Amino acid sequence: MPDAIRSVTVAMTVQCEHCSAPVPINGPVQQAHCRNCQRDFPIARLHEELALASEGMQLLGSPYKVRWSSSPEPECRKCEQVVPISPLAPRDRSGAPPIVCPACSTNLPSYPAPDWLRAKLPAIVHVFGGDPENTATGLALAPEPASIGPVAMACPQCSGGLSITAADDRLVVCHYCNASVYLPDALWRRLHPAKTMLAWTVSYIGEQLVTAETLAEAEAERARKSQPPVAQPAPKPWLLIVLLVLGTIATVGLTLLML
Fold it and tell me: Which DSSP symbol is given to 126?
């Protein structure tokens, strides 16, 4: 009888390796973008965190903070309502069924797990929910395009009008007086709103998610135990005689020394 298909739902953040700010991980990605310091950094241990979550565990002191559930219930990115999935997607990597939020009719992402993640978690099948920009390649968790138009502000040096957009750096140059202007926190946060952590679901086959490294170690251990024991060579008769003679000589020598 084939193994059952199961799921784990996670809501996850990771500490930015540059500024230590929490960064939401809303899907299977290999790289994250921190909106606090506007820098990118790699996501190297996502597969291990998913495997631990499938067992209801988390490493103490990990830079990842994970909330998990065994129920297939991703969150809608628009209204943040839980969207139950029933039934789960097929066991193969064919197209996952479309998911629509019953509260606001928003379509949730649904796609086969990317190849790079399946190489690390062979039992994983599909991904449901999370950010829509997380394609099956999972190359980057890029910031969403800002829907806010240009914001006008006055240069503190010459009072010239500046037009600020989300594409600008935190430090801009006034084109009237060439002064460097540091954008205030309120304006910066308006142009770069905090990213919301969303729950997303992965389906997999078997009792739990197991990493490829763990599977390889288990297979090597099984192969080692299945090998017949190595036969020890039988001692040679002449060697036993030599050892007996040497032992006798040593005993006689010690006896003479004690006299």
Answer: E
> What DSSP element (H or E) covers 28?
none
Contact (CB, 8 A) for 168 and 146: no
Distance set, CA 181 to CA 71, 103, 154, 177, 220 (Å): 49, 44, 10, 11, 61
> Which pTM does this prediction carry?
0.71
CA distances from 174 to 47, 150, 153, 169, 181 (A): 46, 15, 11, 13, 7
pLDDT at 173: 94
Reduced to 3 states, what is the DSSP secondary structure of residue 210? coil
pLDDT at 156: 93
Q: Give the pLDDT means over successive 10-residue stretches in the chain (259 positions).
A: 83 94 93 87 94 90 91 88 77 69 90 92 92 54 54 92 89 94 87 83 90 87 81 65 71 66
| Contact (CB, 8 A) for 155 and 181 | yes
The candidate with the shortest Cα–Cα distance to 2, out of 128, 94, 114, 123, is 123
Contact present, 45 and 2 (Cβ < 8 Å)? no
What does the angle CA 246 – CA 250 – CA 255 come to, to the nearest 5 degrees? 150
Q: Which two tokens stand for residue 222?
A: 């099984």
Task: List 22's β-bridge partners, or say none.
Answer: 15
Phi, psi of 12, deg, nearest 5: -135, 140
CA 102 to chain centre: 29
